Amino acid sequence: MSSSSSSTSNVIKEKQRLGWIEWFRGWFYVVYEMLFQRIMASHLQNPLPLPPLNDLTCIITGCTSGIGLETARQLAESGAHVVMAVRKTKAAHELIQKWQNEQSGMGLLLNVEVMEVDLLSLNSVVKFAEAWNARLGPLHVLINNAGIFSLGEPQRFSKDGYEEHMQVNHLAPALLSMLLIPSLIRGSPSRIVNVNSVMHYVGFVDTEDMNVVSGKRKFTSLVGYTSSKLAQVMFSSILQKRLPAEAGINVVCVSPGIVHTNVARDLPKIVQAGYNLIPYFIFSPQEGSRSTLFAATDPQVPEYCAMLKADEWPVCSFISNDCRPTNASEEAHNLATSNKVWEKTLNLIGLPADAAEKLLEGEEIQCRYGQSLE
Ligand SMILES: NC(=O)c1ccc[n+]([C@@H]2O[C@H](COP(=O)([O-])OP(=O)(O)OC[C@H]3O[C@@H](n4cnc5c(N)ncnc54)[C@H](OP(=O)(O)O)[C@@H]3O)[C@@H](O)[C@H]2O)c1
């Protein structure tokens, strides 16, 4: 065989999108979850019973509405120290007051505080993480809950230059998780819980075009949302692999189900009306918070993560809306792409390629963002 024909045959064509079968299977999972989530989760109580959590410190992003609000409230009412990481700090303070008033008859003093973070600004994420790490206290659970799905909206970019779904749903939570590793080590055994979505099954990440600007794919908010959720699963899988068992930090992605929250606020009015017409199928925020609360508190979760790690499973743990482990999408198993997503993400969030290793060794790392903070 001539050298030119052998080099041609050795060229592996880069995957440009999901295959048809993967795509159909992905949509099947989405529709299945929508139609049968209530039956799948019929064994669960609502609210999910939680043990006393007085020894737990949790940071939860985006908890002034929806799933995050319910998660924060229930963790706080079970005794946890809850840090509401939000951009609307006034709304968060009002919520604490309301929850406290509801509890005052039972004499329970909630241990909740508010810290500001705007995930559309990576400077803001660095500032948040620096402020938290400076306390030198433990962090037991980081819940990356905040997210956006601006359905039907035009493509928008953050001040950092990244497509907004990718920034809010993946890049900013990835930066937060990385920068909080020192606090998570202090809180070990600890967990990073990423509120992901069944929609990642129809996602595809082009690591050369994370902003979807090359024209190879037409941008729609569905493309933005699903790619960001898949990117989060892929990044989490590599992070879980890079964290040695001794570090005691477990990374879990969860699907909350299809939940009636503000996430639908950008949906066309007709679709919002549809949401209101089918309450049977759609979870309330309290029902939608169960998988996150389970992933954050259940003692079986670290055991499950350890089992996947020992088996060198290519994907991190994924907990479904029924609080049972499930398999992430076929594309999420593509280890070569997950490694590229890891490298590309670290580059985009301004961290060195060996950031995880350095942080685990207790070394300081420089982030390109947050340098000019006063
Ligand atoms: N609802 C569903 O059916 C569903 C299904 C699958 C997955 N999820 C996921 O569940 C998570 C929670 O969503 P939700 O349904 O509860 O929707 P939601 O009610 O809209 O809550 C989203 C939260 O994220 C916050 N947020 C948005 N942009 C932010 C930013 N730049 N910086 C800081 N916080 C920001 C919002 O705060 P503001 O009020 O300040 O905007 C809000 O508190 C998201 O990750 C979503 O993708 C939801």
TrEMBL record:
Superkingdom of origin: Eukaryota
Molecular function via GO: oxidoreductase activity
InterPro entries attached to this UniProt entry: NAD(P)-bd_dom_sf, SDR_fam
Pfam families: adh_short
Key words of the record: Oxidoreductase
Family to which this protein belongs: Belongs to the short-chain dehydrogenases/reductases (SDR) family.
Name the record gives this protein: Retinol dehydrogenase 11
Organism: Kingdonia uniflora
Upper lineage: Eukaryota, Viridiplantae, Streptophyta, Embryophyta, Tracheophyta
